[in-house]
Amino acid sequence: MKAVAIVGNSDSGKTRLITALIKELNQRGLRCGVLKKANEEIELDKEGKDSWQFMSAGAETATVFTPEKIFTIEKKKANQTLLDIALEQFGEVDLLLVEGGQKESAFKKIWRLQKAADFDRKLAPEELLAIVADESFPVSPRYPVFQAEETSKLADFLLNVLEPLEPLAELKVDGRRVPLNPFVQSMLTETIKGQLRALKGLPEHPQRVEIKLETGEKDEKPGRA
After folding, report:
1. Angle, nearest 10°, between helix axes 14-27 and 151-161?
2. Residue 85 CB burial class (10 angstroms; 0-12, 13-18, ≥19)
3. Could you read off the pLDDT of 154-173 as tens digits, one per residue?
4. Together in a domain, 123 and 202
5. DSSP SS3 for 63
6. DSSP 3-state helix, strand, coil percentages of the chain (rounded to 5)?
7. Domain match, 209 and 118 both
8. pTM here?
9. Residue 211: CB partners within 8 Å, gap ≥ 6?
10. For the segment 131-143, what is each residue's pLDDT rounded down to a tens digit?
11. Fewer CB near the terminus (10 Å): N or C of the chain?
């Protein structure tokens, strides 16, 4: 999975740009996902609805399964990040489009501007890849600039420059992601691949391997077995 954040001021055209990119990438046979970062609390389940009652009663997660859609509401964990959500929920998409998240260092960014005069190098987001604007720049801002209607060119650019978001190997302990440096990731990957080669009936070159370990130690929290 590749990912990019579309950032900019309110009403700058972020949603319109994301919608256009989804349509363009779908025509190419690619799967897209959208992760929106909201700066204010939003209630998606109305008071009195079943899901609202479940969450109000203390459920950590409530899911509604319909003939065509799945709706899940869950409480945010204290140490949960936007990157955690991206890796856990969007692993099956080809490109994840994040709306907002200007301060999220894990994602490369496209800056959505309406006017060339809105550009200020001092305000440029970190990890900036390119700018999308409604008008041409009289002077180059030293970043690639795409017009709002150049969706196809922007899609080509993103698919060429973005690196996969997923690490080679990841470690979670009791649900908390533990960062691994590239050397440790490589060491774990090669060790596990070596062990798999000794097993019969497996693909010669597996693309994804998942391992879950239970320590056997009991949870000491009250009310838990």
Report:
1. 80
2. middle
3. 999 999 999 888 766 778 88
4. no
5. strand
6. 30, 20, 50
7. no
8. 0.72
9. 192
10. 999 998 988 898 9
11. C
